[in-house]
Every structure is written in C-alpha cells, then in structure tokens.
Amino acid sequence: MERIYKNDLKDRSDDDLLSLLRNPKNLEKSRLSEMVNELKNRGLSEQVDEIEANMIKVHPIYSKFWSRIGAYIVDVVILGAIGFILSLFFKDFFVQLGNQGVLVGFFISLLYFGIGNSKISNGQTFGKAALKLRVVGNNLENISISKAFIRALIYTIPYFFLNYSFAGWSEFSIFFIAKGIVFLTFLILLPIHLIINTPTRQALHDLILSTYVINIEAYPRQELNKSRIFPLYIISGVAVLILGLTVLFNVRSNDTTSIYHKLKPLKEQIDKIEEVGTSVLSRNTSSMKKLGSDEYINKTEYFTLNIVLKENIISNLRPDNIEDLKFVQDAVRIILKNYSEVNQLDYIVINLTFGYSIGIYKSSNSIGYSNTIENWRKKVK
The whole model's pTM is what? Predict the structure, then answer.
C-alpha cells in the first residue's frame, strides 16, 4: 500500500480514498486521521462512520477472551519446556530443594512475563505474539519494565504460593488455610473479571494497573473505553465477603483447631526420621448411605500419611514391601503410640513419593500401601 501524504489527499477521488480507508492496514495512524478528516470535509461523514463501524467490528481493539486464554496456554507450554530443559541438568538440585523448588519456577515466570509484557519486548510474550496481542497502558504505549513486573507479581504470587508452606506454618495452621483461601479466591476472580468485563476485557491485574491487552491488527482509530468498574466491585465485594466468612469459620472451627493440635506433634516427630523430607498427615472418612436414607451401609475411618522422600528408594519397590521398610515402621509406630483416636481407625494408608516440583515443571514417582490397625500393630511391635 503506497503512503498517503496530506498534500496528495485533495488530488484523489472520493472512491479512491474510501477504498483506501476500507483497507488501512499499512497506513500510519496520523495519515489515516487526515484521510478521515478529508472525507468528512467533503460531506461523506455517513460513509466514513459506516466504514469505521465495520472495521471496528471486524478488527476490535481489545483482545477476545479465548485469544488471551490461547496466549496463556502457549506461555505455559513454553515455561514447561524451560523447566524440562533445566531438569535435565539440575534434577538432583531440584530434589534437594524440596518445597523450596517452587521458587525456581516463580522467578523464571516473573522474569518471563515481566520482560515479555514490557516495552523491552514490545508488550508481547511468545504467547501474545503468537495470538497477535500486546500489553499497553492508558496511552496505548508499551508499559515500563517495573510496571510489567508488578503486573506479573499480581498473578504469579497467588499461583505459585497457593500451597506453599512458609517456615513455621503447618498445613493445619489457620494462617496456611487463610492464605490458601485468599490466593484461591484471587485466582478465581482473575478469569471471572476477564469474562464479564466485556467492554475492555481487562482482568483483575489489568484493572489494578490500568493496562490493556489489545489486538495488534486492530483498526487504529479506536479509543480505549472506561471499564465497567461498578459490577466488578460488586463481584469482588461478594467474593471478599465469602472469603472473610470462610476464614472466620475456619478460625472458630473447633474441628480445625482439634485436628491441628492432634496432628502437629505427629508430623514434627515423623519429619525427624532420616529418610523423610516432609510429611503430610490427614484423618479421612469414607462412607456410603442407603439411597434416600441417612443410614450408613458402610463407613470407614482411615489415617493417611504422605511421605516425600529425600532419596529415591521406591523405583523398584513393590507396594506390599512398604510395610517392611524400617522408617515406615517408625512412622506408623509414632501414629499408633501418639494419636489419641487411633482405635477409631480401620486403616492406616502410607503413600511414598520421590520427585520434585519447580512450579513450571515437576516429576515424581509414587507408591502406596494400606493395612488395618491390627495388622500394623503386629508388624511394628
């Protein structure tokens, strides 16, 4: 498409300019505006408005929901590939990191999205480039790298630290539960805002930092609209209210407090066993009721102990050999001796896992075994 200069416009016919306006892909925005003004000065406002309305409909400025999801999927695949390649060289190191391995994926993702969505990369991660999207600010210009990093922090922190155990925080503690509820609520709100905010398709992190994800092939004479903040505030308010009530319920729940106090000492003792990297304990109930009745046909109470191992000792292990492992017997002995409700149990389930997770890639091998309380007592006596 040849370049159109202002002094050339008056020499062109109406049909010629209208034809160029219908296909403005290679026109600079300033030249396009001059062309529009020239046509309107000639009394062709209706034709121009109709062309612009059609162009905006065909090439809207805001990204579509599925385009953003597609871009995100591409980015996740790329991050997974990065994690896989790193694991080829640093597998043993990742295993040693244990729960801290998630920090590796967190910092890689932060760098990926922080740099990719900034002006350094023209506001495009590989996923956005593939779907022809770009992150911009209020002025339709690329955002700074500091703003891009803050934007990335808003959604990477809840994702990577949803199940992360900070030092001194047991998975039974109210702080761990509250953190999980807060981050999960936030992660749920992200796509909900994106779905219902149809005028601008801004997700929660976009609304917080006044950023937009736009189509790079959009009709260039479009302006950014204001977000529909009010309904979003209502939805966020309801979610926060539900969140607050849930946290309060867990804080005041006698069951939660009771479980925490009963299982914490067991975990502390089991985690001291040499082969154990970390452990997760839970009390579970499996039940079946008669159809249309509250009467139980079958109800089973069982205790589950998940052990993440420091070394790979399960690659050639059969499930029925688990009960012969000394450290497993030591762990079961702790449960039988110190768990006050052990006589109410039908089974103790042991799950052994060896592997690693860095958030963007994980690899693990697991094996499980269960036995009755009576049989466990005979085995570990």
Answer: 0.76
